[in-house]
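Translate structure to sequence.
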């Protein structure tokens, strides 16, 4: 694994002039951040050695180096979901490579079903913590001390400092945010009403099918993490209706500009 990470990082390094300190995983809600990047250099995943091979036909995604405002960033357009069939080492491989490239801050976004009774569809949730319910742990197996410690601390998986900054940014821009605990689950089914209730009881405010594996590995690697989630549907008793991927995307698209604004200002502040 160490050799693969190094090989991939070396390949990428040979293509870029400046190595950014901030990486962004563009999930739902941040797709259009790409349009704000300047001086772009795009590297399609299929050209990158050791990158997971896409399970969907067509474009699998790309790494995009560029400037967001004045700041150099590395954006990952398209993530690898566990439900697509990748194992956890594959899902999190790009985060390992980011670390090898010198990334120190990782910003992530996703869509989720809201379980907090006060949440509304379209809300932006600052992720304050997570609960991992994936059936496979990304750090299971031999630990490489070069990558991180055997038993990583997770007491501040999402940086309090970055949360504080994001709160202030949202406030001064008059953007409504909520905050809460993200439950990561394998999918691809959305939850039954009983499952939403269960995830609520165990302490979740929102549930989704991504992010937790990447955040675990980022913490293992000693990165600072910030995450936001768009509440695209509600898993609240009495408010549960049929949900589709299309609706999730539609709500996500509407909330995009606000989330992008927060991330953009956050990147400027931490650079
Ligand atoms: N459950 C799981 N994942 C999701 C949901 C949900 O309700 N909404 C968007 N992604």
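Result:
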């Amino acid at each position: 694994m160490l050799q693969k990470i190094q090989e991939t990082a070396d390949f990428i390094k040979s293509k870029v002039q400046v190595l950014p300190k901030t990486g962004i995983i563009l999930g739902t809600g941040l797709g259009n951040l790409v349009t704000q990047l300047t001086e772009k250099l795009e590297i399609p995943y299929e050209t990158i050695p050791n990158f997971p091979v896409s399970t969907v036909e067509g474009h699998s995604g790309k790494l995009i180096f560029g400037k967001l405002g004045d700041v150099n960033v590395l954006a990952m357009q398209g993530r690898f979901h566990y439900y697509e069939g990748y194992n956890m080492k594959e899902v999190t491989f790009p985060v390992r490579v980011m670390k090898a490239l010198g990334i120190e801050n990782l910003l992530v976004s996703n869509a989720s079903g809201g379980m907090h009774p006060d949440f509304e569809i379209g809300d932006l949730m600052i992720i304050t913590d997570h609960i991992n319910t994936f059936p496979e742990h990304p750090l299971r197996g031999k630990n490489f001390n070069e990558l991180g410690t055997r038993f990583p601390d997770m007491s501040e998986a999402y940086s309090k400092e970055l949360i504080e900054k994001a709160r202030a940014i949202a406030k001064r821009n008059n953007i409504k945010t909520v905050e809460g605990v993200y439950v990561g689950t394998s999918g691809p089914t959305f939850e039954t009403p009983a499952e939403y209730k269960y995830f609520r009881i165990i302490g979740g405010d929102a549930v989704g099918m991504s992010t937790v594996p990447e955040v675990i590995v980022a913490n293992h690697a000693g990165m600072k993490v910030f995450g936001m989630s768009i509440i695209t549907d509600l898993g609240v008793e009495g408010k549960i209706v049929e949900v589709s991927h299309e609706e999730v995307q539609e709500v996500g698209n509407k909330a995009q500009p606000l989330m992008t604004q927060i991330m953009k200002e956050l990147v400027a502040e931490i650079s």
